[in-house]
């Protein structure tokens, strides 16, 4: 029964995470409630996110929704940001990281009402003064703390006027890049409970495929309201975790 529940958690969390980020809102608290040790829960999420993110990216790449030549540079930028964030995290307390997370998410929420960027698809992805620092900064945040990384990245791609379905693929590629190193670390340190991780992974793979298919049918004008709802939920979750 525990494995079935983890499979369902993986489906729900990754479907949401693919569409608007914030999949950790579902998976991480649910695994802790089930009594799974915190490091094993994080490790399971990192392993499942690594593989499911690549699967959804590859699906969109195979359907020619995204170009590897155009997006390949995201990998080193996100990876280096994640490594930098991991180093900085060792110097910052958990309480301060939570405050940083809330500030970033509140800023993204307010900025979403500015009217700039609506996933119109008018612009191609390219390296410029917004995309590179933005992706590197979000990579640092992912290495520092993590929750809301995909949501923040979707805000960035929306601002850059990248088409939504392309933005989904780019976020999944960046998530694969930032989670890959972390997954290896958790595996190497023996924190992974493999039967539970595989159950979550299978659910995540299913959710990733459901998510990309739903994403193709969503109209750009409804994306920002969805992102705002996820952002508010993330802020509430982080605040509650701080209080408790």
Record the SSE blueprint.
Layout (H helix, E strand, L loop, with lengths): L1 H19 L3 H10 L4 H25 L5 H4 L2 H16 L4 H18 L19 H14 L4 H11 L4 H25 L5 H22 L7 H21 L1
Protein name: Probable membrane transporter protein
Pfam family, one: TauE
Membrane topology: Multi-pass membrane protein
Protein described:
It is a single chain. With 244 residues, this protein is mainly α. It has one domain (2-243). It contains 11 helices and no strands. Helix 2 (24-33) runs antiparallel to helix 3 and helix 5 (74-89) packs across helix 9 (164-188). The longest helix is centred in the N-terminal third of the chain and has 25 residues, at 38-62. The protein starts with a helix and ends with a helix.
Give helix and strand order, one letter per element, not per position. HHHHHHHHHHH
Distance between the termini: 29 Å
The unreliable regions are none
Strand content: under 5%
Number of helices: 11
| Largest β sheet strand count, sense and barrel closure | none
Q: In total, how many domains does the architecture comprise?
A: 1
SSE class? mainly alpha
Rg to the nearest angstrom? 17 Å
* Number of separate strands: 0
What proportion of the residues is helical, as a percent range? over 70%
In round numbers, the mean pLDDT is 86
Overall geometric form? globular
Protein name: Probable membrane transporter protein
Keywords: Cell membrane, Membrane, Transmembrane, Transmembrane helix
Transmembrane segments: 71-90, 97-115, 135-157, 169-187, 193-215
Family: Belongs to the 4-toluene sulfonate uptake permease (TSUP) (TC 2.A.102) family.
